[in-house]
Design goal:
The protein is α+β, with helices and mostly antiparallel strands and 103 residues long. It has one domain: Winged helix-like DNA-binding domain superfamily/Winged helix DNA-binding domain (Arc Repressor Mutant, subunit A). The protein has helices spanning 8-22, 29-41, 48-56, 63-81; strands at 46-47, 85-90, 94-99. The chain has a three-stranded antiparallel sheet. The longest helix has 19 residues, at 63-81. The chain starts with 7 loop residues before the first helix and ends with a strand.
């Protein structure tokens, strides 16, 4: 599979496009914090610890907190799918937000 280098301007355009699309969604505060961090980092994945810190203020989670974070991500994922965005899980790392044309 060919790969294409991303220029800084391409990454910034992608991120700003995603942020504009997020403004049109009805999100809870936690969902917005997650989505905003993911959009700013796109097309690069965000570590789970960074997502946790954005929502809880603490980068480490116990089982219950992890479960709550996963529920928030699931709800966010369903809202993003309606806008042709995908929230992909990067196993043992975190999550990646992409527009459908990039997925």
């Amino acid at each position: 599979m060919p790969t294409y280098p991303l220029s800084k301007s391409t990454v910034e355009e992608s991120s700003s496009d995603l942020l504009r699309l997020l403004d049109r969604l009805e999100l809870t505060t936690a969902e917005f914090q997650l989505a905003h961090l993911l959009a700013q980092s796109s097309p690069h994945p965000v570590r789970v610890g960074d997502l946790a810190a954005a929502v809880t203020g603490c980068p480490s989670l116990n089982r219950q907190q992890r479960s709550v974070l996963e529920q928030q991500i699931t709800r966010l994922r369903s809202k993003l799918m309606a806008r042709n965005m995908r929230l992909l899980c990067v196993e043992r790392y975190g999550y990646l937000l992409l527009r459908c044309s990039e997925a």
